[in-house]
Amino acid sequence: MRAVDEVVVEAGRGIVGDRYHGTRHRHVTVQSVERLAVASTELGMAVLPEGTRRNVTISCGDVPSVPGSRIVIGDVELEVVRVGDPVRLDSPI
Hints:
- The chain is an alpha+beta fold.
- It contains one helix and six strands.
- It has a domain at 28-84.
């Protein structure tokens, strides 16, 4: 995983260059800095955005979690289709 400041997004296909680009699921995955901070506290260790395999980390507010909800990031509008499963704590990160 690598952090970047910008990406190219195609409607209905996801982020260009992402392994799920053009597939039928997970076009874009989103997480929040606030939730990473909570996870870091609960685990007693830093949980860095690049270690979570999520595409986008937002720095203000929570990620919408109700299917049909929308979030705008820059010029891109995303619709929540489903909420991803959390990483299991007993699995390697």
